[in-house]
């Protein structure tokens, strides 16, 4: 089945470039020319992923993301024409999975879309059998923290904590090696593949967002900072 991708950008030329690249990759793009239409089309089509420009009329991309995050954890990839890193970090902190700065390579954009979709793809029975030997889909626990790879769900006690695809990948990485300290490059390699590079600040933003979500669920600290090195799963999460 073709993956529906909602493309929201007020520049028709950019939409045309993205739509062509997605169609060539076997996906089904849906176009929105502004933020308000993006919200409407999201509710109507329930896409697998959203490519969302930050600067749009009616509602900007950040407002669209906030509105969608009230009801859905659908992956969101931001587009930004600004060089200001703050815009990118704000976008990730309110629930974005990734960002691409304009001008961009359509090939890189499609690669990033594929990376995110791969993270949220349901596990079929054949995949589970083939990969059980590596314990990739084994239920993991750490104190009150429970991660179920097969259903792509994370719980704090009995409470479901809704994570984006990248956030889930990062927590999964930590739980498989609970004693290990991961530097930013190691986390980047887990959350992103296909030789895609993101800045260390992007990883920091994902970590802050994960911490905030678990704090709202009642977990005071889920990921510890090891100064000068990186991050690790907190030793006491109970």
How does this structure look, described?
By secondary structure, this protein is α/β, with parallel strands linked by helices. The protein has two domains: 4-120, Response regulator (Rossmann fold), CATH 3.40.50.2300; 125-233, Arc Repressor Mutant, subunit A. Helices cover 42% and strands 19% of the residues. The chain is built from nine helices and eleven strands. The protein has helices at residues 12-24, 35-45, 61-69, 85-93, 106-120, 125-131, 165-176, 184-191, 200-216; strands at 4-8, 28-32, 49-53, 76-80, 98-101, 140-142, 145-148, 153-156, 159-161, 223-226, 230-233. The strands form three sheets. A five-stranded parallel β-sheet has the order 2-1-3-4-5, sandwiched between helices. The chain has a four-stranded antiparallel β-sheet with strand order 6-7-8-9, with helices on one face. The chain has a two-stranded antiparallel sheet with strand order 10-11. Helix 2 packs parallel to helix 3 (61-69), helix 4 (85-93) runs parallel beside helix 9 and helix 7 (165-176) packs across helix 9. The longest helix has 17 residues, at 200-216.
């Amino acid at each position: 089945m073709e993956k529906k991708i909602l493309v929201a950008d007020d520049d028709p030329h950019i939409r045309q470039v993205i739509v062509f690249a997605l169609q060539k990759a076997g996906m089904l793009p849906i176009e929105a020319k502004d933020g308000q239409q993006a919200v409407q089309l999201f509710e109507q089509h329930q896409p697998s992923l959203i490519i969302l420009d930050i600067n749009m009329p009616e509602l900007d991309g950040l407002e669209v993301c906030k509105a969608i995050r009230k009801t859905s954890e659908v992956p969101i990839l931001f587009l930004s024409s600004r060089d200001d890193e703050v815009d990118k970090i704000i976008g990730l902190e309110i629930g974005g999975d990734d960002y691409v700065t304009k001008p961009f390579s359509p090939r890189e954009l499609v690669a990033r879309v594929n990376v995110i979709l791969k993270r949220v793809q349901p596990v079929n029975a054949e995949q589970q059998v083939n990969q059980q030997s590596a314990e990739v889909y084994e239920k993991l626990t750490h104190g009150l923290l429970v991660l179920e790879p097969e259903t792509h769900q994370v719980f704090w006690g009995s409470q479901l904590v809704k994570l984006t695809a990248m956030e889930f990948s990062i927590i999964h990485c930590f739980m498989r090696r609970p004693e290990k300290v991961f530097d930013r490059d190691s986390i980047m390699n887990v959350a992103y593949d296909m030789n895609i590079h993101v800045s260390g600040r992007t990883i920091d933003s994902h970590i802050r967002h994960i911490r905030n979500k678990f704090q709202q669920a009642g977990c005071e600290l889920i990921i510890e900072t090891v100064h000068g090195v990186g991050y690790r799963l907190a030793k006491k999460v109970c």
